[in-house]
Amino acid sequence: MLRYDNLTSAVKRILRGSQREETERFIAFRSHWGYRSEFCTPGEGHEKGGVEGENGYYRRNHLVPVPKVRNWEELNALLQEECQRDEQRMIGGRSQSVGAGMCLEREHLLPLAAEGFELASMHFPQVNGSGCVRVLTNFYSAPVPVGREVQAKVYAAHVEIWYQGVCVARHESCFGRQKKVLDLEHYLDALSKKPGALAGSTPLEQWRAQGRWPASFDQMWEGLKKRRGKQDGTRAMIDLLLLGRTHGYEALREAIEKTLAIGCTDVSAVVMLLQAAHGERRTAEPVEVGGLSWYDRPQPTMADYDQLLQKWPETGVIQ
């Protein structure tokens, strides 16, 4: 038995007394782990005072000052380390530590289920005309044809879009309302047909804000437009971005920067560098020429042409 507050992710509707209409996802969660739930009376905070007190103790002693971490994985590792350190604590009036008491309680608990439970809320939206799906209060881009139904899995920090059993998009969760979270990669196929829309597109703006559009991309784009014109140059830049799907955008950035470093703005040079980095360049195999070796000739040189640059001593005219 576990006691909960009336959190909306678990309680769909509060009924008479202690009865609650639970959400389907919460019922699946507690059924998977094999326990029953009980809920506090609304507005009666003292019914869960012990839990609130323990949370306050942990926050003051392990999270003050606020820890600085780079990602969720590092934060989880920090919390686990602090929890293990808290097992040595002695609660007033008790003769055993927190960890020792936990070991005694563990003997009376049921074994954990062999499989874990996916901690995500499930939604089944349809792709709208903008190539987005509405998940809760926001819109997320998905590379799926318009009108198709997809499965959206909402986790604490990110949202996954699944279609036909494959994860086709992954976005960081947006905690605003009526916001659009767009990935430029999802619109490249459409932009290749209408390249003029790239410059002022919202997905490109969001990539710039996220730091996913380096300055080298703009330099290559400008170089392509000078060589091919605005329309064809932009289409060529989109073709380069499409290569990021298979080779990775970090590898694409490195190839573009190497191309720019030698003073070149050609798509073929970027493709050659990407293929070389992935070992796609074939090595030449020796061929037996047999009797044709009789026709071997020395390699030509440019030494004879240098005579044309020599000047006559009398006139100073190039010969």
Model description:
With 319 residues, the protein is α+β, with helices and mostly antiparallel strands. The chain has three domains: 2-106, no CATH class; 121-181, no CATH class; 186-277, no CATH class. The chain is built from ten helices and eleven strands. It has a four-stranded antiparallel β-sheet with strand order 5-8-9-10, with no helix packed on it. It has a three-stranded mixed β-sheet with strand order 6-7-11, with no helix packed on it. The chain has a two-stranded parallel ribbon with strand order 1-4. Strand 8 and strand 9 form a beta hairpin. Helix 8 (230-247) crosses helix 9. 14% of the residues are buried. The model has no long low-confidence stretch (mean pLDDT 88).
List strands and helices in order, with pairings:
Layout: E1 2-4, E2 11-14, E3 20-22, H1 24-33, E4 37-39, H2 49-62, H3 72-86, H4 98-106, E5 121-123, E6 132-135, E7 138-141, E8 151-154, E9 158-163, E10 166-172, E11 180-181, H5 188-193, H6 202-209, H7 215-228, H8 230-247, H9 249-261, H10 267-277
Parallel strand pairs: 1-4, 7-11
Antiparallel strand pairs: 2-3, 5-8, 6-7, 8-9, 9-10
Helix pairs in contact: 7-8, 7-9, 8-9, 8-10, 9-10
